[in-house]
Amino acid sequence: MSLPSRLSWQAALALLLALLAALMLPLLGDGSAGGATWAVFALLVAAVALSALPLPSGLDGLVLFAGAHGVAWLLIGMIGGHEGAARLSYFLMLAAAWLLAWRLVTVLSGWKLPSRGANALLRVLIPTLFGAWVLIIWEAVVRGTGIPFILLPPPSAVAARIATSVPVLAADVGQTILKSVAIGYVIGCGAGFAAAVLADRFLFLRRGLLPVGNMVSALPIVGIAPIMVMWFGFDWPSKAAVVVVMTFFPMLVNTVAGLSASGHMERDLMRTYAAGYWQTLFKLRLPAAAPFIFNALKINSTLALIGAIVAEFFGTPIVGMGFRISTEIGRMNVDMVWAEIAVAALIGSVFYGVIALVERAFTFWHPSIRGG
Q: Is 224:245 a contact under the CB 8 Å cutoff?
């Protein structure tokens, strides 16, 4: 196969951007890049050329990985200490590296590995690479354009703040996540599930409770939180109460819908076996409703975290993620604010991922899981 026919459009466009950047050298306006400029150019051209060769399976991904991330590492390394000095050629080379990373993700997405564990690892690697390149571009653009850190700190500054503030962050996580979110989530989801079963059993509850639930679910957090603080005090119970309100109705609505998911033929079959309401519920209708219930649990995993953090803006002890965000933004410690946001996002993603794994274990029979 000829070289041009194997050259992907991402690699071809990356090579074109690199050639344009070479015509507009240097990469930094103060001329401080030195030999690193040609190292960036040579590494990118070599990665493009090697990716066009008929390489063995797997080696093409390794070449693209080394080329894209090597160029990014050199670009970020050369801009350190020279913030705001980047020229257009610098950003063209950054865009070329991003195109190679795009090609890398495309190649990885087409892989079918023989091991089930390896395929699972690959499904984790692809979004990890995507997220890493969001951080790489963020770092390079902020430092290259010289955006003041007080407006938008780069990821490296946020990571450094996290490393030096572990005790404070741990205390905030313990207050917000382990108390407000965890307790409110369990109570809200449990109460919503119980109410859904009762609403399914008694028609008057379904007709009366669901419209009220839709109305309450539309209430803004900023309106509920001050009221809960007045009712339950400034400590974590008031934040847990906000989480209960936010998680109750999504669980109620999804569970009621899920309990209606089983077909009439299956219900008729249960009747022929003389099964009562509760037997039909536990053996047929709840298993059929499991995807809906887990969908509510995943939705509530993010709602609970948002509700607890926002509720802490309206009164809390001198600890908590929401308290820290509102306090540090007033002190213009924006890196600490982003550190709290990053920790909250990480915990929320892990929480969501754990529920998704439990869902796969319990609903392995569902077509959406078998097809994955």
A: yes
Global confidence as pTM: 0.81
Q: Which residues of the chain have pLDDT under 50?
A: 1-5, 372
Residues in Cβ contact with 72 at an 8 Å cutoff, skipping those fewer than 6 apart: 94, 97, 101, 133, 136, 140
User: Is residue 226 classed as helix, strand or coil in its secondary structure?
Assistant: helix
For residue 49, the model assigns a pLDDT of: 86
Please give the Cα distance from 174 to 170 (Å, whole number): 6
Cα–Cα distances (Å) from 310 to 18, 142, 314, in that order, read: 46, 28, 8
From 312, 339, 307, select the one nearest 326 (Cα to Cα).
Answer: 312
* Class of domain 162-370 as given by CATH: mainly alpha
Report which of 242, 194, 243, 235 is spatially closest to residue 319, judged by C-alpha positions: 235
Find tokens 């509920």 and name the residue. Answer: 224
Whether the CB-CB separation of 249 and 214 falls below 8 Å is answered with: yes
* pLDDT value, residue 4: 45
Helix (H) or strand (E) holding 273: none
pLDDT digits over 2-35, tens only?
344 468 888 899 989 988 988 887 888 766 655 6
Instruction: Say what the pLDDT of residue 34 is.
Output: 59
With 0-12 CB in 10 A as exposed, 13-18 as middle and 19+ as buried, what is 298? middle
Reported as type and span, the H/E element at residue 322 is: helix 321-330
Q: Look at residue 222 in the predicted model and tell me its pLDDT.
A: 77
Nearest to 241, CA basis, from 319, 195, 185: 185
**Contact between residue 21 and residue 41 where contact means Cβ atoms under 8 Å apart:** yes
> Cα–Cα distance between 261 and 285 in angstroms, integer?
7
